[in-house]
Design a protein that fits this description.
Elements: H1 3-16, H2 20-24, E1 27-34, E2 41-42, H3 44-56, E3 61-69, E4 73-84, E5 89-102, E6 105-112, H4 115-123, H5 125-130, H6 134-157
Parallel strand pairs: 1-6
Antiparallel strand pairs: 1-2, 3-4, 4-5, 5-6
Length: about 160
């Protein structure tokens, strides 16, 4: 197995255990992360997002598959089943991830998934009916950004 593929296996194994510190240990200092909810995180924000998500996770199950990597890039598919804490609704999110590596660290991580599908599960009827719409998607992103900012502020205050 390529060493970068092992990094991805370790990353998702740690996620399944909700061990954010083990996850973020694989990130480079100035890592770039994006997904449909958190479109542009860098460095401490990306690490903070995983710490926040692992800390809030209830009934989390992560299953990674299709992991492959070479010297500079990698990919994986992963499924996450969890309770969305804001609504108490169960979510099954199916995500495709791509990675860029440098010096044995992840320096870019991009997750893609269907935000409309996710919003239907997480938000119920409003998400099913309006999850495709930019206003609702932007509201989801704003709420996530505000939650991350509050989490990071509380963490910094100690």
């Amino acid at each position: 197995m390529h060493p970068n593929a092992q990094i991805l296996h370790d990353f998702y194994d740690a996620f399944g255990r909700r061990d954010a510190e083990a996850m973020v240990a694989h990130y480079g200092d100035d890592v770039e992360f994006s997904d449909p909810v958190f479109p542009a995180l860098r460095g401490d924000e990306a690490r903070g997002m995983w710490r926040m998500l692992c800390g809030r996770a209830k009934d989390l199950k992560v299953v990674a598959s299709g992991i492959s990597a070479d010297d500079t890039s990698g990919k994986a598919h992963w499924d996450a089943d969890y309770l969305f804490s804001a609504t108490g609704r169960m979510v099954n999110n199916r995500i495709d991830a791509s990675f860029t590596f440098r010096d044995g660290k992840i320096v870019k991580h991009v997750d893609t998934f269907d935000l409309w599908r996710w919003s239907g599960m997480a938000l119920g009827l409003p998400g099913k009916l309006l999850g495709w719409s930019p206003p609702l998607q932007n509201k989801i992103r704003r709420g996530a950004a505000e939650g991350l900012a509050a989490y990071m502020k509380k963490r910094a205050a100690g």
